[in-house]
Amino acid sequence: MFGFxxxxxxxxxxxxxxxxxxxxxxDIEILACLGPKYDLERFGIVNKGNPKQADILLVTGPVTxxxxxxxxxxxxxxxxxxxxxxxxxxxxTGGVFRYMYNVENGxxxxxxxxxxxxxxxxxxxxxxxxxxxxxxIWERKKKERIELPKLVEGVEGEPLxxxxxxxxxxxxxxxxxxxxxxx
Amino acid sequence: MTAFEIGVAILFPWIFALAIYLVxxxxxxxxxxxxxxxxxTAIGLHLWFSLHGALMFQPPHFVDWLILxxxxxxxxxxxxxxxxxxxxxxxxxxxxxxxLLTWVVLIxxxxxxxNLYVDRLTVFMYLIVGFVGSMITVFATRYMLEExxxxxxxxxxxxVWFLGVMNxxxxxxNIEWFFALFETTxxxxxxxxxxxxxxxxxxxxxxxxxMNQIGGITILLALLFAIHKYGITHFTQFSDHASxxxxxxxxxxxxxxxxxxxxPFHRWLLGAMVAPTPVSAILHSATMVKVAPYLILRxxxxxxxxxxxxxxxxxxxxxxxxxxxxxxxxxxFKRILAYSTISLLAxxxxxxxxxxxxxxxxxxxxxxxxxxxxxxxxxxxxxxxKVYHAKTIYDIKHIINKAPFTVFFILVxxxxxxxxxxxxxxxxxxxxxxxxxxxxxxxxxxxxAILAIGGAIxxxxxxxxxxxxxxxxxxxxxxxxxxxxxxxxxxxTLYVILILLATLFVNPLLVKLFGPVTGAVIGExxxxxxxxxxxxxxxxxxxxxxxxxxxFFVVFFPVIAxxxxxxxxxxxxYTCGEPLRVRxxxxxxxxxxxxxxxxxxxxxxxxxLVLIVGGGML
Amino acid sequence: xxxILLLVALLSPILGGIVYGIERKLKARMQNRMxxxxxxxxxxxxxxxxxxxxxxxxxxxxxxxxxxxxxxFAVFALLVGPNILVAVFLHVLALLFxxxxxxxxxxxxxxxGALRELxxxxxxxxxxxxxxxxxxxxxxxxxxxxxxxSGKxxxxxxxxxxxxxxLTIPIVLKRSPFDISEAHQExxxxxxxxxxGIFYEAVYTAKWLEYxxxxxxxxxxxxxxxxxxxxxxxxxxxxxWLIDNSTTRxxxxxxxxxxxxxxxxxxxxxxxxxxxxx
Lengths: 183, 618, 278
What we know:
By secondary structure, chain A is an alpha/beta fold.
């Protein structure tokens, strides 16, 4: 049964696009992919803009300190199976911002990244190729498995309350900056 | 023997009220109100099954004199109230009524027509008063314990007495008596509204007093002309002059419009909400305002098809839509209920004025189920006020976290007024269908639009309020069911059960209850053809499976939602990844409130049109 | 005929999915794109079934499922039931669950979407009621079989009302310029935002059912001439998609003004004209 359903995964990947402080170069290219010229929709790809209904997380930017908790929350709000694509040099390594005081040097310090798309800015062809790779990886993933950063013990199978999980992760990784209050 | 039972139905509440007032103990009030409930319901049922045709009944002659004396006393009391409270309007209107009453007495011909007239419609009203109204008095005993235990006896006695007055007013045939009782309901509402005694209560009570006295004046004018032109002193005599005596009929209709708080006179009913909540409950559901559709139904066979009826349809249709719109702008829970009452009263009178068998049936259905739904909702408003200290719709935001039961009751109350498959929906549906039927033959054109629009507005209004209440933040199994005091919970539960049963058994009710009453009102019965529980009237069919499945949706989904628990991950709401906890409240459509003066002006113009053109004065 | 109607009612989610697939393809072609394959809605459907579900709370998820079931029932009542007016109100019942779900969570977008959904009901329901009344007026029948075998074509008597109904479809289906309650770029889907996985699937599919619901109403304006009926449905949907592609979103105020100021008088005038003309 589930094997049967799995076959349709590659035909309908829905995207969530998040900018963690990029210069908007890669974002423009992502939007170009969705436009008439490259037309990602012919593969069934839709930009959903909503983590709860998305399958692929396209992250751009070097992850500023402000953005890291948001990135984590959006990632945790996506239902499994899901894949993460780091688009552009900044998202892969921090790019020209690497080792700056306000930057976390790439997405993979916080969430597990499946595909790295290089380039500054990443070319649409590269992005499409990256998404294609991501779909291949996505097809192999299990829907029960929540991938978490290494420092937290993995939780598998059972229903869980992700709100507490997010809170734990935040406490562990994201020390609050001054002036950043909750509620 | 039936005469005795009618006497019991009318007089028992008066006696009970006196006893409650004199004893003034909580347990005694509870006992007597419960007893009153059983007595009135039992007598209503007994009369229903034993009555064949109409019963004319002449009480002893001295009652006539008694009522005349009482009438003068009442008007003098109004006059005195006006002078005491320095409200010239009240005193002037009372004076005018005194003069007109004296005139009536002077030219009144001796008449041997019986003064009491009891038919199925009367007994139908007995049943509503007995079942719906007296449950409210039971609730009121407990409510007053929270509010002001010392004055409980006084308050409950007033309410019980009101029921007696209501039973009386639906049994009279003599228009002069009708006037006396009409003004008695005015008195009762006046006393109840000013019950709390603060400035705003007194002001609103005086408002109710003078507005309702306009109704009294129109009744007296109607009576005066009826006597002068046609020698009519009793309702039944209109049948000899059907559709000729338009002038008195128009003025009686105007009295109904005033009592029913239609648009230019709607402020008194809105003002009535300053009183303790059971007052609103009893005014809106079983008594007072229900005099209006009752009167229109009584007149319906005489005005059927006349210009007066058509103007009434236009006027009430306008009020139906406009008050529903204004309700969207309100934030006070009881004011919203008041506006929706005015709106639905307009619908009842509209259906009554149309006067075809099906329309009259619809009017009766609306009267009955609106009474139940509004009683339920106002009692819930009382619960919200006393237990949860919530008065505006902003106070009842996400109250489901505290009070799932109450929310379910409110849901049933609201949805029963608009949603498939509840009995009031069936009524609305029948009316739309009947109107489109008439559309293909005659010119009831505007009504279809009115019904389509007004229905949608009311649906949106109720959903808007429900939406605020059901905003929950925890899994339902974590929410404890609230425990309410028995006297708070029991009446509401009874109403809910009644609504749900009526929904399922709407066809037997149509055939056995509303059909015969329609027959009594206009002498004709809609072409029922339903078997068992399927509704079928002419070419209109609503099979039971549709009712049942829709019933399952509306009633069972909210209930089982409390017990179903999906074993999947829980997550936070999407707020763009921000750690925000934002709660959106609701729209309150301020722009509609600004239109209110224009609406009132148009309504006043239409009201005058009903009186002048409908009354044949041109 | 009863058998065909029953079959359509039972298969309505699939048919609706196909219509949605056609819509996506055609809209892509209108924008000079390739567009997704025709069966894309079903791929989405199976994909969603395979996702791990997340929820806010069970009440919310249940309301999503109730929306689907009630919407299906509304279609069923329209096609098989003896009274199409009741079906229109059952459609409102389905929307009740959708809005209840939207209201039941604390998410600002969801509540905002539900509130806007109420405006959609306010704008569209009277015109749907009018459409049904018009069908009764011309064919003298409240049930779908009677209309389909009445020997009349309601379109010829009710052209203005039909135009009003066509222009109501963007409001009912939430298509531009009246995609106000959905507004993907603004409130990210409105009341449907918090559903995911299998629960979103219910909402996603329920929206296909609306195509069948509204399509049937359009088809009925062809009366007993089925060719006209099919043509009407095809041309109407084409027009609606064209409008969807070529307009931008308006506000609630515009929608209410348009619905009550233009469409409703148009519909009412047509009905009254026919009523008086007879």
